[in-house]
């Protein structure tokens, strides 16, 4: 669908119409970022382009260095004064790319081998830039919009790094919002839900120690591969046989390493399993950690080996506050209509470090559909042929801006 037909058919409101006028510029900006992907805390080109764009947009202040490469811009509404700065609303976009090889053939494909914007953070950054321009040009709100361009979402906990650098102490937002594109959701649909929106992300590493030896004489060894096989199978019982059917959790063993691929007759002395656990509830998270630790130790001991479980809690669950989730849905309804707002969207087992911000400040995380009008798009997130759908740039920017306008209304509005 072209940007023109999308504009006329999908969204309403002055913010959308205003931003749609510079849709081509947002598209060019997004594609430039796509061509120059950078990993977490290495977003130097990206940050420089963001800073340049913000200054052109006419924001009131640009702050750098939060979370190493993070950028924060301030846009003041009508009636602002330094003596009475008013309320602050935060909007966040992530900027980093992924360590993967792009397989697409578009003109703006990655110029860096082994790096790719495979999750659409280039589009998220462009949407927040569009909101920055609109808010700076119109200023139809009272208070301050805090625009947070965050590094390192893909496993680096960039949100936490920005907060450790004083993000909310320096810019005390009363609410904070973020959005993520969704190729599996129809074009222009906005989805949100009160409560859990994304799962907690835990990393597990299980190191099994046995006794190596000759494959023809296994009775003289303690085979860690055999132990690993039993652990892999038994680990699936934790969710299936320890949790209520009404609880939600995923435990996946995703990697196994033992010995040398060419060593046909060598039983190794060690084996390592790596995987992930996803939950929405801290009590269930703790239950899985405790059960997995006991299970691995017991199985290994029963087979004459030992097992050490390293359980790392990477990201907490992303939990929307109820009032802010309803607020997002109400604002989105004015933009796209009731039929295109999913108010009770199914939570994802994917993780998101925006969770750290939501632990500190009320807010909501939403998804914006970029699939085909009737259903999913051609390539999912983290796929080597994925690309952000530029058609949704005006809608995402307008949604950001509208959240500010409705949260910080002018007197009498």
- Biggest β-sheet description: 8 strands, mixed
Low-pLDDT segments, ≥5 res: 1-9
Strand residue content: 15-25%
Query: How far apart, in Å, are the first and last alpha carbons?
Result: 35 Å
Which of globular, elongated, flat, extended, rod-shaped describes the shape? Answer: elongated
Helix proportion: 25-40%
Read across the widest sheet, the strand sequence of neighbours is: 1-2-4-3-5-16-6-15
Structural class: alpha/beta
Provide the residue-averaged pLDDT: 95
Radius of gyration: 24 Å
Work out the oligomeric state of the chains in this entry.
single chain
| Total E-strand runs | 16
What's the order of the H and E elements?
HHHHEEEHEHHEEEEEHEEEHEEHEHEH
Number of helical regions: 12
Description:
- The protein has 12 helices and 16 strands.
- The chain is of the alpha/beta class and 413 residues long.
- The strands form 4 sheets. It has an 8-stranded mixed sheet, sandwiched between helices. Strands 10-12-8-13 form a 4-stranded antiparallel sheet, with helices on one face. Strands 7-14 form a two-stranded antiparallel sheet.
- Strand 3 (88-94), helix 5 and strand 4 form a beta-alpha-beta unit.
- Residues 1-9 have low confidence and may be disordered.
Task: Give a brief description.
This protein is 36% helix and 23% strand. The chain has helices at residues 3-10, 14-20, 23-35, 44-57, 121-138, 158-164, 167-170, 224-242, 282-302, 322-336, 354-360, 393-407; strands at residues 61-66, 70-76, 88-94, 144-150, 175-182, 190-191, 195-198, 200-209, 213-214, 249-258, 266-267, 270-279, 306-315, 318-320, 341-342, 363-369. Strand 1 (61-66) and strand 2 form a beta hairpin.
């Amino acid at each position: 669908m072209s940007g023109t037909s999308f504009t006329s058919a999908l969204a309403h409101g002055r913010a959308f119409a205003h931003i749609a006028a510079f849709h081509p510029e947002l598209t060019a900006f997004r594609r430039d970022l796509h061509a120059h992907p950078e990993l977490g805390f290495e977003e130097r080109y990206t940050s420089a382009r963001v800073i340049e764009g913000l200054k052109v947009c006419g924001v009131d202040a640009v702050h750098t260095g939060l979370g190493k490469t993070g950028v924060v811009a301030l846009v003041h509404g009508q009636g602002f004064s330094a003596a009475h700065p008013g309320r602050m609303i935060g909007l966040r976009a992530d900027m980093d790319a992924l360590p993967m090889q792009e397989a697409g053939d578009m003109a703006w494909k990655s110029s860096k081998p082994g790096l790719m914007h495979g999750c659409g953070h280039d589009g998220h950054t462009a949407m927040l830039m569009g909101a920055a321009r609109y808010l700076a040009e119109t200023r139809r709100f009272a208070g301050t919009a805090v625009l947070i361009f965050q590094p390192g979402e893909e496993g680096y906990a960039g949100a936490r790094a920005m907060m450790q650098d004083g993000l909310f102490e320096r810019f005390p937002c009363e609410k904070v919002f973020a959005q993520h594109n969704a190729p599996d959701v129809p074009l222009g649909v906005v989805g949100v839900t009160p409560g859990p929106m994304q799962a907690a992300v835990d990393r597990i590493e299980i190191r099994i120690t046995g006794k190596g030896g000759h494959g023809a004489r296994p009775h003289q060894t303690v085979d860690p591969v055999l132990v690993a096989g039993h652990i892999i199978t038994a680990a699936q019982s934790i969710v299936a046989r320890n949790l209520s059917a009404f609880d939600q959790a995923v435990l996946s063993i995703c990697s196994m390493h033992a010995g040398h691929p060419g060593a046909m007759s060598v039983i190794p002395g060690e084996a390592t399993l790596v995987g992930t656990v996803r939950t929405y509830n801290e009590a269930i998270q703790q239950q899985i950690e405790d059960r997995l630790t006991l299970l691995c130790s017991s199985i290994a001991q029963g087979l004459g080996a030992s097992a050490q479980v390293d359980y790392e809690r990477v990201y907490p669950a992303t939990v929307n506050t109820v009032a802010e989730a309803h607020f997002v849905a109400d604002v989105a309804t004015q933009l796209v209509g009731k039929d295109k707002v999913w108010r009770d969207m199914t939570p994802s087992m994917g993780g998101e470090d925006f969770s750290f911000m939501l632990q500190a400040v009320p807010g909501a995380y939403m998804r914006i559909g970029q699939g085909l009008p009737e259903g999913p798009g051609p390539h999912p997130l983290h796929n080597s042929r994925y690309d952000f759908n530029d058609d949704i740039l005006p809608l995402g920017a307008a949604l950001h801006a509208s959240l500010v306008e409705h949260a910080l209304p002018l007197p009498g509005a």
